[in-house]
Write a structure and sequence with these properties.
By secondary structure, the protein is of the alpha+beta class. The protein has a domain at about 135-210: Nucleotide Exchange Factor Grpe, Chain A, domain 2 (Roll). The protein is built from three helices and six strands. It has a three-stranded antiparallel β-sheet with strand order 1-4-5. It has a three-stranded mixed β-sheet with strand order 2-6-3, with no helix packed on it. A hairpin with a 2-residue loop joins strand 4 (about 175) and strand 5 (about 180). The longest helix is centred in the N-terminal third of the chain and has 102 residues, at about 1-105. It is rod-shaped. The N and C termini lie far apart (about 155 Å). The model has no long low-confidence stretch (mean pLDDT about 85).
Length: about 210
Amino acid sequence: MEQEAREEQMEAEKHEEEMERAEAEAREEAASAEEQVAALEEALEAAQAEAARNLEGWQRAQATYENYRRRMQGEQQRMREEASARIARQLLPILDDLERAFANLPPELKEHGWPQGIRLVYQKIVRLLELERVRPMEVKPGDPFDPLYHEAVLYQEMPGFEEGQIVAVARKGYLQGERVLRPAQVMVAKAPAVPPEEAEEEQGTTMAEAA
């Protein structure tokens, strides 16, 4: 009986030792797992930070590229418009000459073939300019003079017109889009000269008021 009791006690102690070893191993495995999880979390945070930096860098690069692309497009458009304006300015004197020729064409020649051919050339030039958004300014007698759009070639007293009004157009002006391609040359009305007696009377009135 005593032998059996000792064997049972030894078996219990052995079992207890195995349980303690199992618990120690479980604690070690748990600690190792926690360390691995912490390492993974740290690696994940580092990867997320790196991804954020990469995204920020990509966004900056994208913004820089978009700004460059828009700037280049604007520059190309500006260069195209300047080239178009230079060509249009060279064509405008030809239109002026053709229009003067048509205006002074004798009636007996208007139905001849060669004036009709020249008129076709004139119309083709007009259509070409229209494709480049070039159009003549709308200026008529009585319009106010505007130095942004008009060039005064003569100031003249003109009955029926107030000072600063356009009397006549000497040369057409043209716009390209909203930009002035060539100002219109115009004659402008000026105030009538004051007669000498009125000038003396006005001067006397001014001196009397001053006294």
